[in-house]
Amino acid sequence: MDIKNLNEVPSFITVDGSEIRELLAHRNSAIRNQSLAEARIPVGGATLEHFHPVCEEIYYITQGVGRMRIEGELRDVKVGDAIAIPPGQKHKIWNVGGEILHLLCCCAPGYEHADTIITEV
Q: Of the residues 4, 41, 54, 81, which has the maximum number of CB atoms within 10 A of its CB?
């Protein structure tokens, strides 16, 4: 049985600049076809705009407020919002609040650095 606690998994920085704590993925569990991670974006921070050629992604906001852009469409997001990001769609999220923005990132297939294409400098 694989059970991982958010406070016990190490963080790392992804290609888009996010600080991620990978909870379950092929690197640390029996999971093979998806991944679940928590991302944290500091106050005033943002990811680099990017897309994933292969994986589809779901963001789920658990703390803070943000602004999400997918393929030019801009929306404010808050706690409880789930955001669908299809493969190939350019996306970026900003922390526009006064506290760290926390979001769960679900990827299928699982997250890989090689599947992240940065579209801004």
A: 41
